[in-house]
TrEMBL record:
Any one annotated GO CC term: Golgi apparatus
Family label: Belongs to the glycosyltransferase 8 family.
Listed name of the protein: Hexosyltransferase
EC number(s) stated in the UniProt entry for this protein: 2.4.1.-
Predominant subcellular localization, coarse grouping: membrane
Amino acid sequence: MTIIQLFPSLFLNLFLLLLLRSSAAPTATATISQQFKEAPRYYNSPECPSTVNTPPLTVDPTVDPTVQVAMTLDAAYLRGSMAAVLSVLQHSSCPENIIFHFVTSSSSNASLLRATISNSFPYLNFHVYPFNDSLVSGLISTSIRAALDCPLNYARSYLANILPLHVSKVVYLDSDLVLVDDIATLAATPLGDSILAAPEYCNANFAFYFTPTFWSNPSLSATFSDRKPCYFNTGVMVMDLDTWRAGEYTTKIEEWMELQKRMRIYELGSLPPFLLVFAGKIAPVNHRWNQHGLGGDNYRGLCRDLHPGPVSLLHWSGKSKPWVRLDAERPCPLDALWAPYDLLKPPFSFDS
Ligand SMILES: *[C@@H]1O[C@H](CO)[C@@H](O)[C@H](O)[C@H]1NC(C)=O
Ligand SMILES: *[C@@H]1O[C@H](CO)[C@@H](O)[C@H](O)[C@H]1NC(C)=O
C-alpha cells in the first residue's frame, strides 16, 4: 500500500494547491503544468499518391500529393492545437502526406513547443517558425475581446512571408477546432482566380463589422463598390500563397490596420482587415467546413448549436473554449464532440 492510497485527500489538496499556484503564473509557463499523451501513428491508405521520388512542392499544385497546413502554436491554446492536429490525422486517408507549419510567437519557448509536438506526434512532418511580434504589435488597436488582440492572432496575414517560398498553397486552421472529415477535400477546393477560399455567409449583416465612421465616409466604403461583400470567418481558409506574395496582400492588410489606428473603422481584431481586402472576392467553400461559433458569443459565451446541414469541421470560435468549460465541469452539449481529441494527460498520470 502506497502513501497515496493511504492519504488520498492529502494528495488531492496538495495537487489543488499546485494547480492554483500555477494558474496564477504567466501563460508562458502553462506548458510546464500540462503533459500530453502520445497519439497513435496514422498510416497512408494504399491508394495514396506517393510523396517519395516526387520532389513535392515543385510540381503543379493540382497534382501535389502533399497537403500543407498552417496553424499558430502558443502555450495558451496548445491543448486546442494538439486536438486539432489529432483530428486532422485521424480523418485523413493520406495522413503521411500532410505537412504542418506551426507559427509561434517570438516570445514563447519554441523548442519547448517543438518538443511537446514531437512527443505526442513522433511521426509528424512539421516545421516551427517564429513570428516577430513587433512586426504587428504597433498596428494592433484594442478590440472588444482581449484574446483577439494577441499578436499571434495576426500571423495568418503574414503566412506568405513566414512560410518558405516553395509552399505555394496552404490550409490555415485556427487552434479551437476539430475536423471530422478528410482535410485533402478542403485543400482541393478550386480557387479559380481567387487568392483564398472560405465558407461565405451572405445572409450575415456585413455592415455590422464596420463602424458608422467607415460607412459614412464614401472614400472608405467605396472599397466595396465593385463587389458584393459577404462575411467569412478567417479561422479556416485555403490560401494561394504565390498569388498572395505576387499581389503583396500583406501590405494591403497592413494599410487598413494603419488606418484603424488613426480612425476607428471596425471593432474586432484581425477579421475586418481580411474582409476589407477579400470579401466578395473569395472562392466559396461548403459551410460544412466551418461550423463556427461553438465557443459562444463574444460577450457572454452562451452555448450555441450547430448550423443546419452536414458537418466536416467544428469550430469553437467565440468567447469560451471547450477545454475551459470541460475543466470547469460546465460544458456545452457540443463540447462532448471535442473531448475525444483531447490529448491532455489526466493530472494524476503525470510522469514523475
Ligand atoms: C525552453 O524549454 C527548454 C526545454 O524544456 C528549456 O530547457 C529551456 O530552458 C527553455 N528556455 C527558456 C528561455 O525558458
Ligand atoms: C522584429 O521586427 C522589428 C520591427 O520591424 C525589428 O526591429 C526587429 O529587429 C525584428 N526582430 C527580429 C528578431 O527579427
